[in-house]
Design brief:
transferase activity; 46% helix; Phosphorylase Kinase, domain 1; binds adenosine-5'-triphosphate; single chain; three-stranded antiparallel sheet; Aminoglycoside 3'-phosphotransferase, Chain: A, domain 2; binds magnesium ion
Length: 360
């Protein structure tokens, strides 16, 4: 696909722009466009329509959110899509891939690991601000861009189904993890109970709050805004907090096989809750406040189930670089879950302290 055609789709003249591959995303193809005369930047992305089967839902959600923010908070930095020549948010190439252009956030950088607790606080604050600013918008107006993405009950069912069809060898290899996941079925039940409670508000959540989905300001070092809004969709409070706990608190990633290194860094856990609640405490219902500590457990259990399910199914979903990698990933997530469970009482106390700190 010639880039000149893509640019033309957006009414941009190919000769005026320089285009380079950009960033380290795994899902979409991302490019930086720079206008040669002025140095102005734009972000060009080809959306992965194998992952996102309904790209119009993504564009529609971003548009609804953008319109709401423009009306209620015009100064808020949000990624408003640049229109195509036809006035649309997406342009489709001959192969059927959708492309979009977003404002480029200048003087900013992203990171792949959380090195300091202050970064966790700052990132969490930005995800909280996003959800808070969208709290006045009816979440049901947005569409799920990945249906059942964080549906823990379904993930648990899929694990049970995989057990039915898995080969004996894999089941034997994974017997310890199968036991640990089965013993925690109560978490899936808890999830189903929590989300039907009227106090558990359907909210507009980001759903992919890993650290490289936040841009940090070059000068201040503070998080500037969330990016990667492909999964901006209706969900529950647990999703964003939970994925931050899952991906910020351990000094090592889900790929680490030396489980002695998988741990909960208390300072990072506290920092991310502090940052999140500094912006969201006043917005939460009493019910949500009472159940915040469920978030990390939920997301870790879900990811452990998903890796284990994929291992049992013969590694059909997550890319692996060596046999057994999905089982190792599941082990890693179960270890972190165990460490988190050990600290549950102190985490509940911490959350209570923070809620008191941010009470209006
Ligand atoms: P993931 O693997 O996290 O799903 P992705 O393929 O969906 O990633 P993005 O996260 O949207 O892609 O973008 C990839 C990278 O491009 C980001 O990590 C960031 O470095 C950079 N980037 C994205 N959006 C912007 C923006 N608006 N301004 C500047 N840089 C951006
Ligand atoms: Mg990303
Ligand atoms: Mg993404």
């Amino acid at each position: 696909m010639g880039l000149n055609q893509v640019l033309d789709g957006f009414g941009l003249e190919d000769a005026s722009w320089e285009c380079v591959e950009f960033g380290s995303g795994h899902i979409n193809n991302t490019y930086r466009l720079t206008r040669k005369q002025t140095g102005e930047n734009l972000l060009l992305q080809r959306i992965n329509h194998f992952v996102f089967k309904e790209p119009e839902a993504i564009a529609g959600n971003m548009r609804i959110a953008a319109d709401h923010l423009e009306a209620t908070d015009p100064d808020y930095l949000f990624l408003n899509a640049v229109k195509t020549k036809e006035g649309k948010d997406l342009w489709y190439d001959e192969e059927g891939f959708p492309w979009r252009i977003l404002p480029f956030i200048d003087n900013a950088y992203s990171m792949d690991e959380v090195g300091e607790a202050g970064q966790a606080r700052s990132a969490a604050r930005q995800f909280a601000i996003l959800t808070r600013k969208l709290a006045g918008l009816d979440a049901s107006l947005l569409k799920p861009t990945i249906p059942d993405f964080h549906n823990l009950e379904l993930r648990y069912r899929q694990f049970r189904e995989a057990l039915e069809t898995a080969g004996e060898n894999r089941k034997k290899e994974a017997s310890g993890e199968i036991g640990q996941c089965s013993n925690r079925a109560h978490l899936a039940e808890e999830y189903s109970r929590l989300i039907v409670h009227p106090g558990c508000k359907l909210r507009i959540m980001h759903h992919d709050t890993k650290i490289n989905n936040v841009l940090f300001d070059v000068e201040s070092g503070e998080a500037k805004c969330p990016i990667d809004l492909d999964t901006l969709m209706p969900g529950y409070i647990f999703s964003d907090l939970g994925d931050m706990v899952r991906t910020y608190v351990s000094p090592v990633s889900e790929e680490e096989t030396d489980l002695s290194k998988v741990a909960v860094r208390d300072e990072f856990y506290e920092a991310l809750y502090d940052g999140y609640l500094s912006e969201m405490a006043a917005e939460l219902s009493d019910f949500e406040k009472q159940h915040l500590s469920f978030s990390g457990k939920m997301l870790l259990y879900m990811q452990a189930l998903r890796f284990l399910t994929d291992y049992l199914q013969g590694d059909v979903y997550y890319k692996i670089h060596y046999p057994g990698q999905n089982l190792d990933r599941s082990r890693n997530q179960l270890k972190l879950l165990l460490e988190l469970e050990k600290k549950e009482v102190s985490h509940i106390q911490l959350i209570e302290r923070l809620l008191k700190k941010y009470r209006e």
